[in-house]
Amino acid sequence: MRAYLKRLHAEIAHYAPAFSKTKFDTWSLGGGTPTLLDAPDLDRLLTRLHRAFPQKEDASIEFETSPYTATKERIRVFEKHGFNRVSFGVQTFATETLRAVRRGYQKNSH
């Protein structure tokens, strides 16, 4: 995770100057990966992202997560950073596919 975050922070620093005069009206973070970070790492990442890619005051700021990794502590970090929308994506209801992508812990309730 440290190597991933180091590279991600380097990417943010690389692209930030190109957007220095831009304020975004939509901002999304996700795929579920952000809620794999512990709360302090997530907080540092979001702080850096907000500085590099600022949003308009009324922007839609959203994150995607999994209910299995979205702890209260992590959700509070998103709230602290002004996120106003959350998405809990469903990739599939096919048990075989869930097992194949190592998400067998997700159960089809139908």
If you had to describe this structure to a student in words, what would you say it looks like?
It is a single chain. α2 (39-52) packs parallel to α3. The chain has 110 residues and is of the alpha/beta class. The chain has a three-stranded parallel beta sheet with strand order 1-2-3, with no helix packed on it. The model has no long low-confidence stretch (mean pLDDT 86). It has helices at residues 2-15, 39-52, 72-80, 95-100, and strands at 24-29, 55-65, 85-88.
Secondary structure topology:
Elements: H1 2-15, E1 24-29, H2 39-52, E2 55-65, H3 72-80, E3 85-88, H4 95-100
Parallel strand pairs: 1-2, 2-3
Helix pairs in contact: 1-2, 2-3
Tags for this entry?
3 strands, three-stranded parallel beta sheet, 110 residues, 4 helices, alpha/beta
Q: What level of helicity do the residues show?
A: 25-40%
Order of helices and strands: HEHEHEH
- Count of individual beta strands: 3
**What does the radius of gyration come to?**
16 Å
Which regions are unreliable across 5 or more consecutive residues at pLDDT < 50? none
How far apart are the first and last residues' alpha carbons, in Å? 35 Å
Largest sheet: 3 strands, parallel
Q: Rough shape?
A: globular
Order of neighbouring strands in the sheet with most strands: 1-2-3
Count of alpha/pi helices: 4
Q: Strand content of the residues, in percent?
A: 15-25%
The helix-and-strand class reads: alpha/beta
Task: Kindly report the average pLDDT value.
Answer: 86
